[in-house]
C-alpha cells in the first residue's frame, strides 16, 4: 500500500493483494492497529493511522512508526503531521527534484510537540470527528454525482437512437436532433482593450474564461469600463478556449471576453452541454486547431437533442435539483475543510 495513503487516511481503492506465502515472508513489515505510516516517495509526508480492519496488513515503501516508547495518541501525531509547521520541517529534510523522497533515518531525530495523553486524545478525537463529517458529505456528494452521470446517459437518447431509455411518465414520441444555433441565441465574446480593465466593482463585470466560474457560476474577478459583447443575467457562459466546453451560469449582466460565449438557453440544454463535456465531445471538435479552441461556426452547428417543451422542463428540473444537492454537499465539504485547517493552525504549536 505504498501509494494508498491520502492525507490522514488510508485510500483502500489502491489495495493490492498478495498470496499467502509472500504475505508471511513480509511479517516484519506487518502493520498493527494504531501504527502510523508515512509516504516515503512522491507525496512525501502524507500520513495515516492503521485502523482496526487493517490490522496485520503488509506494507512497503513506507516509513512506519510502531511500538511507541511511551503512551501517545496516534491520531494526535497523525494530525500534527498535517500542520503547516510540521510540513515545513519535513520539506527541509526532503530530497529530490522530480520525485521527492525522505529517508527513514531522518525521521528518527525529527522533533514534534507533545502534551499529556489526555489532551492528545481529546485533540485527536476532535479531528477524527471533523474527518468523519467531511467523509460523510464526500460519500453523499460522490453518490449523487454518480447517479447524475448515470441518469444523463439514460435520459438522453444513445447514439443511433431517437428515444431515451428512461422517461418521465406521460411523455412519448421520438426526439429530434437540431443545431444549437437554431434553437438558442449565441453571442461570441470580444475582449475589451486591456487599458480599460479595472478593479472597480462599479464598472462592468468582465468574464474571460473558466477562471471566472466557480461551482458553475460567474464570480466577479475583473471589471472593465469598456462594453463590447454582453450577456444578461440567466445566460449560460460557455468557454470557447482552453479548457473548451466548460459551462456555467451568470447571475449578473456581464461583458464577454473572447474566451467565452453566451448562450441563451434553458436548463435542459445546459445539462446537455455539460454531458457533451463529460463525453469528451469538445476535445474531438477542437483537436485540429493550432490551440485548444472552437469557432462560432463549430459551436452553432453542434447537434443537440430537442423534445417537447414540457418534457424539457421536467428533465431540466430533475437535473437542477440533483445539482443543488451536489453543490450543498460540496459547500459543506469546503466549509468543514476550512474549519479543519483553522483548527490545525490553532490547536497545535
UniProtKB/TrEMBL annotation:
The UniProt keyword set, sorted, is:
DNA-binding, Plasmid, Restriction system
Among InterPro entries, the record links this protein to: Restrct_endonuc_typeI_TRD (IPR000055), Restrct_endonuc_typeI_TRD_sf (IPR044946), Type-I_RS_S_subunit (IPR052021)
- Residue ranges constituting the Type I restriction modification DNA specificity domain according to the UniProt record: 13-144, 174-335
Under Pfam families, the record lists: Methylase_S (PF01420)
What GO terms are given for molecular function? DNA binding
Record has DNA-binding as a keyword: yes
Q: Which GO terms describe its biological process?
A: DNA restriction-modification system
The UniProt family comment states: Belongs to the type-I restriction system S methylase family.
Q: What is this protein called?
A: Restriction modification system DNA specificity domain
Recorded source organism is Shewanella baltica (strain OS155 / ATCC BAA-1091)
Amino acid at each position: 500500500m505504498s501509494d494508498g495513503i491520502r492525507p490522514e487516511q488510508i485510500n483502500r481503492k489502491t489495495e493490492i493483494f498478495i498470496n499467502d506465502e509472500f504475505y508471511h515472508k513480509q511479517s516484519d513489515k506487518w502493520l498493527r492497529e494504531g501504527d502510523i505510516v508515512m509516504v516515503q516517495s512522491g507525496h512525501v509526508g502524507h500520513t495515516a493511522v492503521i485502523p482496526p480492519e487493517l490490522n496485520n496488513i503488509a506494507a512497503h515503501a513506507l516509513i512506519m512508526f510502531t511500538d511507541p516508547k511511551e503512551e501517545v495518541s496516534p491520531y494526535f501525531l497523525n494530525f500534527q503531521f498535517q500542520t503547516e509547521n510540521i510540513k515545513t520541517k519535513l520539506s527541509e529534510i526532503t530530497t529530490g527534484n522530480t520525485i521527492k523522497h525522505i529517508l527513514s533515518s531522518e525521521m528518527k531525530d525529527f522533533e514534534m510537540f507533545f502534551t499529556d495523553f489526555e489532551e492528545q486524545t481529546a485533540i485527536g478525537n476532535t479531528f477524527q470527528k471533523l474527518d468523519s463529517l467531511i467523509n460523510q458529505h464526500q460519500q453523499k456528494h460522490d453518490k449523487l454525482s454518480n447517479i447524475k452521470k448515470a441518469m444523463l446517459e439514460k435520459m438522453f437518447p444513445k447514439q443511433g437512437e431517437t428515444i431515451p431509455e428512461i422517461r418521465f411518465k406521460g411523455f412519448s414520441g421520438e426526439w429530434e436532433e437540431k443545431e444549437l444555433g437554431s434553437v438558442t441565441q449565441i453571442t461570441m465574446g470580444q475582449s475589451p482593450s486591456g487599458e480599460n480593465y479595472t478593479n472597480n466593482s462599479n464598472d462592468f463585470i468582465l468574464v474571460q474564461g473558466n477562471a471566472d466560474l466557480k461551482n458553475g457560476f460567474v464570480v466577479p474577478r475583473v471589471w472593465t469600463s469598456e462594453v463590447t459583447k454582453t450577456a444578461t443575467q440567466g445566460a449560460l457562459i460557455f468557454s470557447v478556449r482552453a479548457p473548451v466546453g466548460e459551462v456555467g451560469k451568470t447571475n449578473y449582466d456581464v461583458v464577454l471576453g473572447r474566451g467565452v460565449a453566451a448562450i441563451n438557453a434553458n436548463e435542459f440544454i445546459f445539462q446537455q452541454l455539460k454531458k457533451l463535456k463529460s463525453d469528451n465531445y469538445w476535445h474531438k471538435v477542437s483537436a485540429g486547431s493550432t490551440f485548444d479552441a472552437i469557432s462560432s461556426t463549430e459551436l452553432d452547428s453542434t447537434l443537440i437533442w430537442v423534445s417537447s417543451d414540457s418534457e424539457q422542463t421536467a428533465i431540466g428540473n430533475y437535473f437542477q435539483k440533483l445539482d443543488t444537492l451536489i453543490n450543498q454537499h460540496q459547500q459543506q465539504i469546503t466549509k468543514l475543510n476550512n474549519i479543519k485547517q483553522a483548527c490545525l493552525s490553532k490547536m497545535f504549536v
